[in-house]
Give the backbone structure.
Amino acid sequence: MKNRICELLDIRYPIIEGGLAYVGNGALAAAVSNGGGFGVVGSAGRSPEDFREQIRLAAKLTDKPFGVNLPISEHSNQEPYIQAILDHAQQLKAVSISAGNPKPLIPLFQEAGLKVMVYIASVKHAKKAEQLGADLVIAEGFEAGGHNSPLELTLFALIPQVSQAVNIPVVAAGGIANGRGMAAAMMLGAEGIQMGTRFVATRECQAHDNYKKLLVDATDDSTLVMARSIGNVFRVARSPFAEKVVEYEKTGPTVQELLPYIKGSNNRIAAIEGKMQEGWVNCGQSAGMIESIESAADIVQKVAKEAIDVLNTTRLHFNL
Ligand SMILES: Cc1cc2nc3c(=O)[nH]c(=O)nc-3n(C[C@H](O)[C@H](O)[C@H](O)COP(=O)(O)O)c2cc1C
């Protein structure tokens, strides 16, 4: 596989690890990159010091390119995270930016020698990111785990429209966990994929074993959307806790009233400490396809190989 994304990020397979907040640790990013994909260290929910430490750890564990994720609105003060990225620019290849206006950050990071990848969930925002000079866009569909766009566009409709609207490469994110999904995304016009949920169920991810087990046991209907009542879309694993939150939302709480349920510490307690009854965890619809906990490097290689096989056999189905 050799295309614009491989060239831009200097990687073997156009498979990117999504920003995964505090379960996106340095060891996981390094493993994704060692497998030939593009590992990404998460910053959301991490202290600036921990963020720096995870970048240094990833750099120690791989000599392959990797990057970081900066979800703008997740940080009440972005400055220390921006500074950490600039201070480590020599070790990094790219930054993925989500959840906010990337305008001032694109030139800042590019001047530091980094490629900039911008999350979008509509044609309008893809065009805007291209105009602002983004190197590629990550088009994230409503299937994705975590914080999604309230537009709720599914990947199958989003990718063809975005790829037609912009000239920069498009990465498909949301609902992909195997090579079949990767092949389909490429046929829709994407030049690469990003996976989040699949990389949580790996040996290297710092998520609690209870979280990983939940992903392995998940089925097609194992997710639900929280916080829609206040204009947000958090796709999380279906659990008694998450179902209770959605039930409460039906009573019409204000943002302030809902906050104690959806706050980040309720995620951390489940995702990191494994207390699944006391919090919620991010989970994409792709979880139903996860069958085992593997090494992230093996996953990258398996997904790439399967995508190639699927594309070849598809040609046979059509007698091409
Ligand atoms: C556990 C988890 C944490 C996430 N945290 C972030 C984050 O901090 N920043 C971000 O931009 N996206 C985040 N996302 C979204 C992912 O980067 C990615 O786009 C998404 O997971 C892709 O969909 P999938 O889960 O179906 O693979 C998160 C997703 C998950 C599952």
About this structure: Residues 18-21, 23, 42, 44, 69, 71, 98, 119, 140, 143-146, 173-176, 194-198, 200, 282, 284, 286 surround flavin mononucleotide (CB under 6 Å).
